[in-house]
Amino acid sequence: MKRYLILTLLLIQQSVYGQRILFKENYTASSGNFEVFGKYSLGAVQRSYCPLDFIKDTAHPALTRWASSPTGEIYWTNGAAIFSYNFDRQQSSVLADKIYNVSELVVSDKYVYAVSLNDNPDANPGNRYSSGQKMYRISLANGKKDQVQIPDGLNFTNLSVSNDGNTLSFIHTFNYDDQSLCEYRLCVYDLVTRNLNIVDKALRRNDEYFGSPEKYNSLVWIDSNKMLYFKHEKGKIGGSILMYDAKVRVKNIMFNNILDKTFTWFSFYDQWFLFSDGEHIYRTKDGINKEVVLDKNIQQAVLVQK
Predict the structure, then answer these.
(1) Which domain of life is it from (predicted)?
(2) In terms of domains, do 32 and 96 share one?
(3) Is residue 260 within 8 Å of residue 238, measured between CB atoms?
(4) Edge-to-edge strand ranges of the sheet holding 91-97
(5) What is the tally of structural domains in the chain?
(6) Whole domain around residue 94: which residue ranges?
(7) 138 has which bridge partners?
(8) 5 phi and psi, to 5 degrees?
(9) pLDDT per residue over 176-209, tens digit each?
């Protein structure tokens, strides 16, 4: 029996630690004109230094957003173009240009989805609540850019995409300019049927929220139908992780013991929740007992799906 338990624990450990995690380190530009990406698997870390010299003298000299495909390819933007990044060669190449003021970036197995606040490169982009936002879909195969038809008046944060690439999820902020009426709406948008569905709501005056522009990911698709999301509710120290099934439009609480309100990212794999607090990556099964997986200056992380 003891040998069986040890074997079971080893299998669990291997399944979690064997899963690849991509991350970007916290970094100050004074150290050099590059960003540091990393790969973590089986307890080993590889780093790659992404040079930014080729954009330093432009109007958009910094990496502003990055994302990973389901198989682990890295894409990033400086707010004016979308680049693909070769981790081993430490080289970036343009996938698509003339996409300005990019506020959100997410990648499926075929496309990059990017939200543009304003198409004018010389205009003030405003803020993430600006009217007239556009969403673009860029082919990973050839860089072809198409505009995605979305309902008027939407704003976006925490953009995520289902595993089959057919559904987008995001947080839309309603009445953003009135704190007493401000409401966060967690939405899913079917790219095939063009149907928009509000999954859940949170009132700002009640200290309720799903995420914020500073939170890199509070919505996680675990397959083509099921999505996990974080919600903080009034009167609670922490928050809950809920699962939404888009097929039957039902949501249920997975567990409500998330005591750390400040996490910047979370994901889920093999019954383990993985979190990053802007410095470390840790795992937990109950939201209380946490184990550090990686503690090397982590700003943002992505769990590679395939």
Answers:
(1) Bacteria
(2) no
(3) yes
(4) 65-68, 74-77, 81-86, 91-97
(5) 3
(6) 52-148
(7) 112, 145
(8) -65, -40
(9) 888 899 999 999 999 999 999 999 999 989 888 8
